[in-house]
Design brief:
Layout (H helix, E strand, L loop, with lengths): L2 H11 L2 H26 L5 H18 L8 H20 L4 H21 L5 H8 L3 H10 L1 H14 L15 H19 L3 H12 L4 H8 L3 H21 L9
Length: 252
């Protein structure tokens, strides 16, 4: 039986055997997504756990997928697989309280310095504001990158989005559509306004799906430096959302 025939048999008759075959067919897709995310979260969680979370997203994708919509299943499924992984990572609550505090302190410092100075503050200015050494600021930015990715992606995922890919839903109210459009506009405007190096890092990480090591090799920078820059960009995006009043309470 072809994949197309499997899909139609499952959707038209709710045949569980066909559903099982579809799950088995698309498990490699879960492993690809989990593998990419393991490059980032690997020090905090086992690869098999990421795959397990991703399979939940795959099953949800198969159940919800509409054969009559003009979208490839693989594209649709990747969004839900990644969303399921992020959601389950959040539920594990493995991020230490001290790391959450560091993230809030740095985010607040950047937010207040931006308002005062009118531009994105340097690490030196952040260190002066927080009364800590430059090295401590750099270490904090490296340490909180994972938290910022989970925090921001979780926020966008809870609002029915995948990072940098804001989708519309048939059930959205006009207010919800407007909010999604605003989020997308802020993301696009913020990224467009980034310095070229920061913009390139975001592009290589999220679109080309390269690791910090690979990006560092291209830009001749250390992995820790790439991590610091990435963290600052995520904080910048979060602060832009807060300034716009878009679900700021959900940015944790």
């Amino acid at each position: 039986m072809t994949t197309k025939e499997l899909w139609y048999k499952y959707k038209e008759t709710n045949d569980m055997e066909s559903k099982k075959e579809l799950i088995e067919k698309y498990v490699p897709l879960v492993k690809v997504v989990a593998g990419r995310m393991f490059n980032f979260y690997g020090s905090k969680i086992e690869y098999d756990d990421l795959v397990g979370f991703g399979v939940l997203g795959l099953i949800d994708s198969i159940e919800r997928f509409d054969l009559h919509k003009n979208i490839k299943f693989e594209t649709y499924a990747q969004i839900r697989i990644k969303g399921a992984i992020i959601d389950n990572i959040r539920k594990l609550d493995w991020i230490p309280r001290s790391l959450r505090k560091k993230s809030k302190d740095v985010q607040k410092a950047i937010f207040e310095l931006e308002n005062k100075l009118g531009y994105n503050p340097s690490n030196e200015q952040i260190s002066e504001y927080l009364h800590i050494s430059l090295k401590e600021v750099e270490n904090m930015l490296s340490d909180i990158t994972t938290f910022n990715v989970v925090s921001l992606e979780d926020f966008l995922n809870e609002n029915g989005e995948y990072f940098f890919e804001v989708k519309e839903d048939d059930k959205d109210t006009p207010e919800r559509v407007y909010e999604k459009d605003e989020i997308k506009k802020i993301l696009v405007d913020t990224i467009d306004a980034l310095p070229e190096k920061e913009k390139l890092i975001i592009s290589l990480y999220y679109y080309e799906e390269l690791t910090y090591k690979e990006i560092g090799h291209i830009l001749k920078l250390s992995e820790s430096r790439i991590s610091q820059i990435h963290s600052r960009v995520l904080i910048k995006i979060k602060n832009c959302l807060i300034k716009s009043g878009i679900n700021s309470n959900d940015l944790r």
